[in-house]
Design brief:
four-stranded antiparallel beta sheet, alpha+beta, binds adenosine-3',5'-cyclic-monophosphate, globular, 20% strand
Amino acid sequence: MSERTFAMIKPDGVKRGLTAEILRRIEHKGYRVVGLKLYQIPREVAENHYGEHSDKPFFGELVDFITSGPVVAIALEGENAIAGWRSMMGATNPANAAPGTIRGDFATSMGENVSHGSDSPESAERELALFFSDSELIK
Ligand code: CMP
């Protein structure tokens, strides 16, 4: 089933010059990029985006990090794009991320793990709406 998901290159990925490499992987995989922007996330948007982690001890650190520099926000479309993009990223903890995945190849810490992807259709819908207005998405 074709579906849309929200992908993000986090500030560490942008700072390290991994944007083109990650977009290359997305395009080579065959996903259609239907939204794309460089974006300095306002603190309120970051707190909303990570709302489900608000009671975790690392919440403050997470919000500080994600607002520490611009991210690349990406809307992707394709067959099983939600699970497929998460599989391309690899495990959240880079120590468990397989070589060949984005985190396996480029990330070394749990907090600074280069990329993000929605984990369900409900999160994809919520996150796409949080980061993109309708007019910024290709039909
Ligand atoms: P992401 O998938 O973007 O969404 C939640 C984020 O929380 C996750 O990536 C990690 O970067 C971060 N995270 C999860 N566990 C920890 C942790 N123990 N310490 C710091 N950050 C964490």
